[in-house]
Automatic annotation (TrEMBL):
Name of this protein: 2-phospho-L-lactate transferase
InterPro entries in the cross-refs: CofD, CofD-like_dom_sf, FbiA/CofD
Molecular functions per Gene Ontology: transferase activity
Alphabetized UniProt keyword annotations: Magnesium, Transferase
Gene field: cofD
Organism from which the protein derives: Actinocorallia aurantiaca
Alphabetized Pfam families for the sequence: CofD
Length: 315
């Protein structure tokens, strides 16, 4: 069985761990979001790729969901002592090594896809991890403060401001001219089906879909998605702020209509959302209820299995 998964960070990585348990023999290709990538202290940081790599490779800080296990922050403190900015992004000492290796390889001319493969040689995530593109794409957010309207990097809005100022627009800068990374379209073409984990629909899955060619390749496939919204709220994080910014209701049905029935064929919603699932225009989508909380390994495995089962049924 060949499966392609479009993944952001925490929601994507946890779902993938369940998928590996549910379908241990499947060949899984992960197309990772790189719109959250940011240069810090001269280093290229790819938060979502690293969250997937560390989670599947056994190096993640479980409680936090991102960053390394047993992390220390000496370098961060030393940089702050020099007055270096920014101080709001948590880079740990162990994590720094990943970004140093990545940046050196990029500077030597390797594309991000090859660099990611090299990093994964250490972590052995058990999936093929591809960035959505090798080109630089950065999600920017338009906000308005005392200084007027301006665009800031997604991480500044998300991490520094904790999405406290409304986003007037969210744009993946550079996406229009970007190409899918080598292997992405082929993996989609050869996949038996494609899964959308409960990742942020706007700044994770939506960003991947903004790379020309990916959405069209998916239309020919059976796609099953898992709602990242349970009972009208994102399970963790502030995904509602992203949905509000693009005028989408924070609900399982809202996210389903955002993707649309021409893209998503099957949609898993939480049992408590199923009775209220009103779906004008979404009739072609098969909606199924299943517990969606990835609270422990068994619940996560069962959720991934439900997604696989629905995809097999529909394909
Ligand atoms: P990020 O890049 O780290 O923000 O992670 P993702 O884009 O992969 O996913 C974040 C989204 O996952 C959050 O906005 C939540 O809505 C969703 N999420 C997190 N944990 C769970 C869970 O246990 N169940 C479901 N259904 N969604 C979850
Ligand atoms: Ca992310």
């Amino acid at each position: 069985m060949r499966i392609v998964v479009l993944a952001g960070g925490i929601g994507g990585a946890r779902f993938l761990r369940g998928l590996k348990a549910a379908a241990p023999d499947a060949e899984v290709t992960v197309v990772g979001n790189t719109g959250d990538d940011i240069y810090l202290f001269g280093l290229k940081v790819c938060p979502d790729l690293d969250t997937v790599m560390y989670t599947l490779g056994g190096g993640i800080n479980e409680e936090q969901g991102w960053g390394r296990l047993d992390e220390t922050f000496v370098v961060k403190e030393e940089l702050a002592a020099y007055g270096m900015e920014p101080t709001w992004f948590g880079l740990g000492d162990r994590d720094f090594a990943t970004h140093i290796v990545r940046t050196q390889m990029l500077d030597a001319g390797y594309p991000l896809s090859q660099v990611t493969e090299a990093l994964c040689a250490r972590w052995e995530p058990g999936v093929r991890l591809l960035p959505m593109t090798d080109e630089r794409v950065e999600t920017h957010v338009v906000i308005e403060d005392e200084g007027g309207k301006r665009a800031i990097h997604f991480q500044e809005w998300w991490v520094r401001l904790r999405a406290s100022l409304p986003a007037l627009a969210i744009t993946p800068v550079g996406a229009d001219e970007a190409k899918p990374a080598p292997g992405v379209l082929k993996a989609i073409e050869e996949a038996d089906f494609v899964l959308f984990p409960p990742s942020n629909p706007v700044v994770s899955v939506g960003t991947i879909l903004s790379i020309p060619g990916i959405r069209d390749a998916l239309k020919a496939k059976t796609v099953v998605g898992v709602s990242p919204i349970i009972g009208g709220a994102p399970v963790r994080g502030m995904a509602d702020a992203c949905l509000t910014a693009i005028g989408v209701e924070t609900s399982a049905a809202g996210v389903a209509s955002f993707y649309g029935p021409e893209l998503v064929n099957g949609w898993l919603v939480a049992p408590e959302d199923a009775p209220h699932f009103v779906s004008p225009g979404l009739e072609p989508m098969t909606v199924r209820a299943h517990p969606l909380l990835m609270s422990d390994p068994e619940a996560t495995r069962a959720l991934a299995k439900a997604a696989v089962d629905l995809a097999l049924e529909l394909s």
